[in-house]
Design a protein that fits this description.
alpha+beta, 3 helices, about 55% helix, flat
């Protein structure tokens, strides 16, 4: 078996174009795919990760929302938000 070099940038662009097309098809049926993110605390790496996910959603035509909580948030507050989002 011969190794094959993949162009990750081109592959990513192709996949994102497919996601956007599928999102548009779903939107035409009244369904808007999306992502909700809950971020607790101020970890810089997590903030970058979430920002990248929100940007990727925008590029693909997905809905996204971000909920940010202080590091000392009560667990029941976060669990209530998860339950609300799941409903």
């Amino acid at each position: 078996m011969t190794a094959q070099i993949l162009d990750g940038i081109a592959l990513g662009q192709k996949l994102r174009a497919g996601f956007k097309q599928r999102a548009e098809e779903l939107a035409a049926q009244g369904v808007r795919p999306g992502l909700a993110v809950i971020l607790v605390g101020e970890d810089a790496a997590s903030q970058v990760y979430v920002r990248n996910k929100v940007n990727a959603c925008a590029q693909a035509g997905f809905y996204s929302e971000k909920h940010v909580y202080a590091p000392d948030v009560a667990p029941q507050v976060v669990l209530a938000k998860i339950a609300e989002l799941n409903a």
